[in-house]
Structures
1.
Amino acid sequence: MSSPLSETVALIIFNGEEDLLSRFEDMRNQFEESWADLIVPNGHFWGRGVERPNRFYWIVFFKSDATLLQYIEHSARPSFRDRILKMASDLIVFYGLHTRPNMRALLLAPVVEVTHYSLKPPYTTAESDAQCQIVSDAMMVRKTKGLHGFSWTLTEERGGEGVFIGGWDSTQDREASVDYEDQDLIDVLEKGFNLTDSITMMNVVFQPHSTQ
């Protein structure tokens, strides 16, 4: 079955220590108990940075903008949000993002490179969206070793931000993916970087949340 062209996503990125793992699992379990009917099947993921294991990612795919709104307006959400704030530091929260195709499938790759960036004025999310597609096409047409594909999502919040992900067989494949003698590819990548005001890149291992 092909993925929808757009899915409604909530994404939380935060820092935490090793002893946070059990509390984070409890939070995800509570979310499932309270709001599982609002999200798509197999649409709940979490991950940790490879180089920085204290960097955590939490991604939930909602059935629609309407079900996300149900979650946001639920009477139990304020106390749940407060628990997240107490658990996490350096918190970055996105609600109502719309992903490009295949993000859920790509999160199952052995390694996922997550690039979070803010746009440099006066660049727009529409320009960034177009450049993400150009980068994806350039990498895919070269049949890059170990590459599963790319997906991305953008928001107008905070002046414009984006999350661009690529699924890989290994960190080694990801690190060896750019041929620096391929000037056409370098030009494409540099144009993408030039749209950004700040950018962070992280190799992450994701897994579906399980209540087992």
2.
Amino acid sequence: MNIPDFIRIAIGSAILLYVAYCLLNHKVWIRKTFSWGTKEKYPKQYKMTIIGGILIGSFMVGSPFLS
């Protein structure tokens, strides 16, 4: 593994930590209002953040180990 792989793992880990924070607090960052929104008020954005974050974060963390 080289330096770009370690950077990819670090960024992927940060994304997964953000997803974990959103899951634990039931909140998501809303860019439209530039504040935290609740899961009940913004259910679509919450689901997209959780699903997208898990997929992208997992891919970034796992891809250096697949090659």
3.
Amino acid sequence: MAGTIIDITPMRRRHLPAVIAIEKQVYPRPWSRTLMLGELDLKESRAYFVARDGRRVIGYAGIMFVGDEGHITTIAVDPGAQRSAIGMRLMLALAKSSLERGVNAMTLEVRASNRAAQGLYKRFGFVSVGARKGYYQDNAEDAFIMWVRDIDSAEYGELLAQYSLRYASSTRFELPRIVSGEIS
């Protein structure tokens, strides 16, 4: 993937077959197509993105907005594209989209055993604030609850600017436009 441009764009229905294929590879209890379609229809309170290498979907991420908070609902990268900073780019898109929506804090749950994901989230300022015992239904594994606050601060803006600069030559971002409160 070195030397290629990664496109981060809003997820569309046409992306769902590839998204669901990745979902089945990386999660023991994958989301259904019906659930994904329902999430995509909630444009006022959700943002979903895909990462593409050419026409091939290699990752995706989503966030739910509630008031001034964003709850990251999902993020996954095709196993063949992992360790290529795709997760970094998707997290950057989620953070930028959150700021455009007036969000000042983000949260998520992550498997206690998923050290790689925890490391990614920590790079974006997330800290563990607690646990949900037996949260994951497939094996009753605990989830760590992680938060990052004050994402609208100058300090956090500088962090995002550094990441944006790092990936500027290899990533094209297309975020949903918000015009007069309407999302397009």
4.
Amino acid sequence: MRKLDRRGKAILSVAAAAAVIVNAGVAWAYWTLDGSGSGVAVAGSAVELKLQGRSDDSAPLYPGGTSNLTVTVTNQNNFPIRITTLSPGGAVTADDAHRDAGCRSTGVDIRAELLKVDWEVPKNTIGVFSVPDGLRMTNASDSACQGATFTIPVQANGQSSAT
């Protein structure tokens, strides 16, 4: 093995110092660089709520009377929903037995065009809610409607309540 002379030691020292400086610069650049770019995110889609309104079996309607409106809300979304208003959604129908007996003109409707509510339905669950005295029956109902259970189509407005 050959010994390095003075000139060889100097060249080797300069090369080692240069290597340290270059590596330090690369390390500094690696930790301090900023960047920008673009990405893609896909928003989930909302599933329509399923709503079913019914008259309260424990408080049957009679001509001129009121009763509770029971609303079942099925939320199949992966986020909670807050319902803020309800409104009529179509024609009210009587149960099959009363309809077969002649209950065609029910005289039943929701007491207001817009009911304000504040219902929270957790994700992927079914919520059952009641609107006290939310239904009324007019004197125009058929006699065959006495004692019937009514299906009341409803529409709801609301929003995601996810935080």
